[in-house]
UniProtKB/TrEMBL annotation:
<feature type="transmembrane region" description="Helical">
    <location>
        <begin position="142"/>
        <end position="161"/>
    </location>
</feature>
<feature type="transmembrane region" description="Helical">
    <location>
        <begin position="90"/>
        <end position="113"/>
    </location>
</feature>
<dbReference type="InterPro" id="IPR043128">
    <property type="entry name" value="Rev_trsase/Diguanyl_cyclase"/>
</dbReference>
<feature type="transmembrane region" description="Helical">
    <location>
        <begin position="27"/>
        <end position="47"/>
    </location>
</feature>
<dbReference type="GO" id="GO:0043709">
    <property type="term" value="P:cell adhesion involved in single-species biofilm formation"/>
</dbReference>
<feature type="domain" description="GGDEF">
    <location>
        <begin position="242"/>
        <end position="371"/>
    </location>
</feature>
<dbReference type="Pfam" id="PF00990">
    <property type="entry name" value="GGDEF"/>
</dbReference>
<keyword id="KW-1133">Transmembrane helix</keyword>
<dbReference type="InterPro" id="IPR050469">
    <property type="entry name" value="Diguanylate_Cyclase"/>
</dbReference>
<feature type="transmembrane region" description="Helical">
    <location>
        <begin position="53"/>
        <end position="78"/>
    </location>
</feature>
<keyword id="KW-0812">Transmembrane</keyword>
<protein>
    <recommendedName>
        <fullName>diguanylate cyclase</fullName>
        <ecNumber>2.7.7.65</ecNumber>
    </recommendedName>
</protein>
<feature type="transmembrane region" description="Helical">
    <location>
        <begin position="167"/>
        <end position="186"/>
    </location>
</feature>
<dbReference type="GO" id="GO:1902201">
    <property type="term" value="P:negative regulation of bacterial-type flagellum-dependent cell motility"/>
</dbReference>
<dbReference type="InterPro" id="IPR000160">
    <property type="entry name" value="GGDEF_dom"/>
</dbReference>
<dbReference type="InterPro" id="IPR029787">
    <property type="entry name" value="Nucleotide_cyclase"/>
</dbReference>
<keyword id="KW-0472">Membrane</keyword>
Length: 371
């Protein structure tokens, strides 16, 4: 069977949790604003009906709404502005966990009051569904909370209501708690699967992008990447008038190596030459395989004298390297040019022209159009 969804690794799980925290905080923030509006309407409703506003349930509602105001301020005004990462993480955990716990407690008490005053367990039912949405990504915490709320609710109802009247709301609320847990689990599972699939696709996409820029034989950048990179560097060099050199490096007599020793040996020579150039690369050099037997080095922030210096060093390193399996030393011809505010293709053409000159002059040499 093909496994489409990989087993989540620790970093994926962590990343998923971070994703949940972000979502939950936004949810908590907007839920708080909604609760404040509802509280206003609730209060107006009570006043218009001339109802007692200091009853036990009203005090609980007031407490619930006051907490919402504090949470709305923390979530929407304080957290987004915090710069201290450690403090932010700490406060985020407190807010994310404390809020549903507090809500659950208040809703449980409202549920008990509701049943005691024959209003029914509606607040408890609503509360449990709300916290199962809020605690997405923390299933264990949700289970603990649901179980504690139900136990608290049952004890409260038993204590205040005769057994006959208590059984029905307790059973209803048990079903609600069970349903909330199952729904939360199912939604979380599908969210995790979707998240992991997207994450996996994102990684594969990244890998494809990287692979499309890499030469499979030598593992260095390919021509496509070089041309893209050159475009952006030309814009920069023009804008800030920065010096930039280009070396075109061609392996001498590669055709002959291929013909006498085989294509595999030719491949090995190319890999080794690429590694030699790479191992002596400076921080600002960008190396790529430009053509079959040809490499180039783009030398950023480098003037003509420094570029020629680099070219000479590369030539010497390759000439003195031990290529004993070829039976003779492997050499390269290098053409050097400096950027002169021209178009990218003209810049490359200059390097190609000077490389041809290098070859014509007898190979294994550095030729420059800047001296
Ligand atoms: N082994 C190997 N050979 C390649 C590869 N790509 C191209 N070639 C061969 O490399 C040779 C390059 O030849 P050229 O650069 O034209 O000529 P050369 O023999 O190097 O001669 P000069 O450039 O004049 O020194 C050709 O025979 C290509 O077939 C590759 O990936 N691996």
């Amino acid at each position: 069977m093909i496994q489409i969804i990989p087993k989540p690794t620790a970093d994926l799980v962590e990343s998923y949790q971070r994703h949940c925290v972000k979502n939950n905080l936004t949810l908590v923030g907007y839920f708080s604003v909604l609760a404040i509006i509802v509280f206003g309407l609730h209060l107006i409703h009570h006043l218009r009906l001339g109802m007692e506003i200091f009853s036990a349930s009203m005090i609980l509602y007031t407490l619930l709404y006051s907490f919402n105001i504090i949470y709305a301020v923390i979530n929407l005004l304080i957290l987004p502005k915090m710069r201290d990462v450690a403090a932010l993480q700490w406060l985020t955990v407190v807010v994310e966990m404390a809020y549903p716990f507090f809500m659950a407690l208040v809703f449980t008490l409202l549920g008990v009051i509701g049943v005691t005053q024959e209003g029914g367990p509606v607040p408890f039912v609503i509360g449990m569904f709300v916290i199962s949405v809020m605690l997405q990504g923390h299933y264990l915490a949700l289970l603990v909370l649901l179980a504690s709320c139900w136990t608290l609710f049952s004890l409260g109802v038993f204590y205040n209501v005769p057994l006959q009247q208590a059984t029905s709301p307790i059973m209803i609320c048990f079903t609600v708690v069970l349903a909330s847990a199952v729904i939360a689990r199912l939604t979380e599972k599908s969210r995790v699967e979707l998240f992991l699939t997207i994450e996996e696709l994102r990684k594969k996409n990244q890998l494809l992008i990287e692979m499309s820029n890499i030469d499979p034989l030598t593992g260095i950048y390919n021509r496509k990447h070089f041309l893209q990179f050159l475009d952006s560097e030309i814009t920069r060099a023009r804008r800030y008038n920065r010096p930039m050199g280009l070396l075109l490096i061609n392996v001498d007599d590669l055709k002959q190596i291929n013909e006498t020793l085989g294509h595999d040996v030719g491949d090995q020579v190319l890999v080794e030459v690429a590694n030699l150039i790479k191992s002596h690369q400076r921080e600002n050099d960008v190396i790529s395989r430009y053509n079959s037997g040809e490499f180039n080095v783009l030398l950023l922030e480098t003037d003509a004298a420094q570029s020629i210096e680099v070219a000479k060093r590369i030539r010497t390193i390759i000439e003195s390297h031990d290529f004993s399996y070829v039976g003779k030393s492997v050499t390269v011809s290098i053409g050097h040019t400096q950027y002169r505010q021209q178009q990218a293709n003209k810049f490359i053409e200059s390097a190609e022209k000077i490389l041809l000159e290098s070859k014509g002059l007898g190979k294994n040499r550095v030729t420059s159009d800047s001296v």
